[in-house]
Design goal:
This protein is α+β, with helices and mostly antiparallel strands. The chain contains 9 helices and 6 strands. The strands form 2 sheets. A 4-stranded mixed beta sheet has the order 2-1-3-4, sandwiched between helices. It is globular, with a radius of gyration of 19 Å. The model has no long low-confidence stretch (mean pLDDT 92).
């Protein structure tokens, strides 16, 4: 099953939605039978390339809301994040233009590291509170997933993979994406936003049934509990 996900690395609901999708895949027994591809989307392409101001200050200016209103909004999102095992601290998060991060992700995808870097970039912003427009941060993320620092530097210092990023964004517009996360399953069904777990599971099951995909065995334990394999036992 092919699932395409339009997402941005500074979108709090994108990380939450990623976790909801991952849990739904596990719960429906479709682990190993789903190919998830993350596609680029820029929430605010007008953000300056060197803007790493606190997210709270940026949102207050952009939305014309008071500090109390913004903090109330943060509380709601923080609680939602906790429900999927993510710990957000908006007081430390930094604003960022994500164009370079998306280009780096396209390079990682070409090296078979797309899934790893998508997780690493989201964690860098939302868990480690790092600035995703800082080359040093991006190079450290690249190294952490097994990419060559030198090759990653060459990507960041050029316009490599810019066309691929633009293509994703144009494709999003062509199919009517107006916000992220946006999930497209087999180019037939779409889910907009970090919806409740039940909707993800229901949609996955529907697509799996239509494709004739059978769920795999669902493991009920998280350790081997003592197993003998290949003619020997480990004590």
């Amino acid at each position: 099953m092919k699932i395409e996900v339009w997402s941005d690395y500074v979108c709090p609901f994108c990380y939450i939605g990623k976790r909801e999708l991952e849990q739904a895949i596990r719960e429906t027994g479709l682990t190993g039978k789903v190919d998830v591809e993350f596609k680029a989307y820029e929430l605010d392409p007008t953000t300056s390339a060197d803007d790493n101001a606190p997210v709270k200050e940026s949102l207050m200016k952009k939305k014309g809301m008071s500090e109390a209103q913004i903090e109330g909004m943060f509380e709601n999102v923080t609680e939602r994040a906790k429900s999927v095992g993510l710990n957000y601290d908006f007081s430390k998060m930094k604003n960022a233009n994500t164009k370079k991060a998306h280009r780096l992700a396209k390079f990682a995808e070409s090296q078979g590291k797309g899934s790893a870097i998508d997780e690493a970039l989201l964690a860098a912003h939302f868990t480690d509170n790092l600035a995703l427009n800082d080359d040093e941060v991006l190079l450290n993320v690249a190294e952490s997933v097994g990419l060559s620092r030198e090759e990653a530097q060459a990507v960041l210092s050029s316009d490599q993979y810019a066309d691929e990023v633009v293509r994703d964004i144009q494709e999003a517009r062509s199919i009517g994406v107006q916000g992220v996360p946006f999930f497209v399953l087999e180019r037939k069904y779409a889910i907009s936003g970090a919806q409740p777990q039940e909707l993800f599971q229901e949609t996955l099951k529907k697509v799996a049934d239509e494709m004739g995909l059978k769920p795999g065995l669902q493991m009920m334990n998280d350790n081997d509990g003592g197993v003998c394999e290949d003619g020997s036992c480990t004590f």
